[in-house]
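Justification of resources, computational component.

The compute hours requested in this renewal are based largely on the per-chain cost of generating structure records like the one below. Each record pairs the submitted sequence with a full structure-token output. That output is archived, and it is also reused by downstream analysis tasks.
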Amino acid sequence: MRRPLLAAFAVGLVVALIAGVRWVRIGAQVGTGYAAKMACSLVHVSGFDLRHVVDDYILHEVAPLGPVLSVEKTADGAEARAAGGLFSARAVHRRGLGCTLVRSGSSWPLVGPAEGLAPARRVLPPTAAWPVGHAPPTEPPPAVAAAIERAFAEPGLPARRQTKAVVVVRDGRLVAERYAPGVTPETPLLSWSMAKSVTMALVGALVRDGRLDAAARAPIAEWRRDGDPRAAITLDMLLRQSSGLSFDETYGATNDVSRMLFTQPDTGAYAAAMPLEFPPDTHWSYSSGTSNIIGRIVRDAFGGDVAAMVDYANTTLFDPAGMTSAFFEPDASGSFVGSSYAYMTARDWARFGEWFRRDGEWEGRLLPEGWVRYATTPTPAAPHGEYGAHWWLNAGPPGDPGARPWPAIPAEVYAARGHSGQWVAVVPSARLVVVRLGLTVPDEEPIDGTETLIADLLRAYAGM
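The structure output for this chain reads:
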């Protein structure tokens, strides 16, 4: 018995060591990919100081890789190395396209113009009042100023709120704004998962123009093979996060979302390869992979022409709504990373929320009739009424609005939300839009303070 037991133990030990080595390898690839991509975008796009980005954000997000990680800004992007260069990644910055992860020493293709794009964007008059121009707001009421002051206050280490911008819109007017040092009204700021809501708007424009059909089966070639049950998945199911596809969204070093975003050249292909875990339209599961499948569908609708896709987004969506700083960053395959990488100024994020508050109208109807209602109607499979179509909701479980996700604010609130405390929240009855952007670590709502900020603003404006 002794020899078989020793042999079994040895085999188990070898398997465990192999698994451990694989985990370390994947984790290091994810960590260096994350560091290169975020350093590139936050430095080259947002103009932040590299040391601040690394010390106050990246090192927290990629711990415990930090002690062996180095990050450098380059002329055309950023590079990250770990363990003396054993693991490395590179991201490149292209004008008009932001930053794209290409990894160091890889043969990844980089679809789209290598020199970037210089699209002509709408110019808004600098002295005209928001939203048609860029004039700053007047001094806000004291209670509003105090609420915003609290939103910038730090809760104390080890948590870091790191609020970068707060913008408040009421009755369609810019009534208050504040920015952190180094941030201005012209600074493009990251979305993380707020990009999902922007992706939903882009799909709406394509539906309006007859280029996509939300009710039709998703045009994914891999799912069209005989007997593949994924063929039943529609674009509508993808938008409502009810496709039934397997996808691990629990953030960590080796899960699906991290591997997709920071180790893969084609984020949509990675997600589309996932098997079904549930029958389509029977189970709700929040998935960044789903959003990048949609990004791939959008790319394919333009035949992979990145310049044409950018021009369409600018001329039919962003510029008509006054969001003249807005753009998506693509992955190496040329797909917009619809789950995570949209950039625009805080004022333009406020225009985005105000545009949805106006039911998709802005100097004319930019979204199909009923598209905002579709976005803000709880998807049947979402257990707590917390999700519509690529927008977060506060409805609460059917028949129990008291158990809503954000109990301090009304059930009608809906929001584009992203990692590290990114919010664009709409309160329809109060005619209020609240934008809060930051680099909050850890990513927890009580730390970013946005629910409290919205509640404070509602009290401040009550009766005004």
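Confidence is low (pLDDT under 50) at residues 5-19. The longest strand covers residues 87-94.
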